[in-house]
């Protein structure tokens, strides 16, 4: 008996996920953001008609790549937002370790794809914000709000505080990674991260450091996590 009209193959989502993975690898190539819909299909080993069936358009494929990374990153964002806290200095330094590890594990390529495809593009720009950039900033906001509640940071607009904490490292990581800055103008990341945390605390800190929460030493706040986004 055939499938009812409009129903999907049982393996629709699995096939779609495998196509997303294949196209993402092509998008991560140096010329990736300029590839056509036909080239995307070829890189995934399917026909244009098949790719259109699963995604509708070139923009639909890129949106699916961004959505895939949003789903994949949820547990890491949750750990940033809700994981047990070390005293504020160590907590913020641990966040920067975590951010840098994520960039090395594939997140940097997703930011590069989102920015390259989304700038001045009315559909993909907001999609990149919704799926990748804003969730990152929102989890930082949640973490900083907890440090405010612990008396370690001054009360204020945590969205502005999150932008102040996360924007310079994001720019530095894009500069050093997808933009090729490690060859053009190398940056000492460890020195940068240490000095950035100190500058942030001079601007927003109260001088008080609360004791670590139970289990904080085993979280990313104690240094680089054992596994990062994109790692098994």
Kindly summarize this structure in a few lines.
The protein is an all-alpha fold and 232 residues long.
Low-confidence parts, pLDDT < 50 over ≥5 residues?
224-232
Reported by name, the CATH topology of the largest domain is Tetracycline Repressor, domain 2
Query: How large a portion of the residues is in β-strands, by DSSP E?
Result: under 5%
Average residue pLDDT:
90
Quantity of strands, as a count: 0
Order of helices and strands: HHHHHHHHHH
CA-based shape? elongated
- Biggest pleated sheet: none
CATH superfamily of the largest domain: Tetracycline Repressor, domain 2
Count of discrete domains: 2
Count the DSSP helices. 10
Biased composition (Gly residues): 220-232
Keywords: DNA-binding, Transcription, Transcription regulation
InterPro entries: Homeodomain-like_sf (IPR009057), HTH-type_TetR-like_transc_reg (IPR050109), HTH_TetR (IPR001647), Tet_transcr_reg_TetR-rel_C_sf (IPR036271), TetR_C_Proteobacteria (IPR039536)
DNA-binding region: 36-55
Care to describe what's here?
It contains ten helices and no strands. The protein folds into two domains: about 45 residues, Arc Repressor Mutant, subunit A, CATH 1.10.10; about 150 residues, Tetracycline Repressor, domain 2 (Orthogonal Bundle). It is an all-alpha fold. The protein starts with 11 loop residues before the first helix and ends in a 28-residue tail after the last helix. Helix 4 runs parallel beside helix 7, helix 5 packs parallel to helix 7 and helix 8 packs antiparallel against helix 10. The C terminus is likely disordered.
């Amino acid at each position: 008996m055939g499938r009812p009209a409009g129903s999907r193959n049982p393996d629709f989502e699995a096939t779609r996920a495998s196509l997303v993975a294949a196209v993402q690898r092509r998008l991560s190539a140096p010329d990736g953001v300029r590839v056509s819909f036909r080239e995307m299909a070829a890189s995934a080993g399917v026909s244009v008609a098949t790719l259109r069936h699963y995604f509708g358009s070139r923009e639909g494929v890129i949106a699916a790549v961004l959505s895939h990374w949003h789903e994949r990153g949820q547990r890491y964002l949750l750990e940033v937002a809700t994981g047990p806290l070390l005293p504020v200095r160590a907590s913020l330094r641990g966040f920067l370790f975590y951010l840098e590890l994520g960039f090395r594990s594939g997140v940097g390529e997703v930011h590069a794809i989102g920015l390259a495809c989304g700038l001045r593009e009315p559909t993909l720009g907001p999609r990149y914000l919704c799926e990748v950039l804003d969730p990152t900033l929102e989890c930082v906001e949640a973490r900083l709000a907890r440090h405010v509640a612990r008396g370690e940071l001054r009360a204020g607009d945590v969205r502005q505080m999150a932008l102040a904490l996360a924007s310079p490292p994001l720019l530095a990581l894009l500069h050093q990674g997808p933009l090729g800055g490690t060859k053009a103008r190398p940056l000492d990341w460890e020195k940068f991260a240490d000095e950035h945390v100190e500058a942030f605390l001079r601007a927003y800190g109260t001088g008080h450091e609360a004791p670590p929460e139970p289990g904080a030493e085993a979280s990313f706040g104690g240094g680089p996590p054992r596994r990062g986004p994109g790692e098994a």
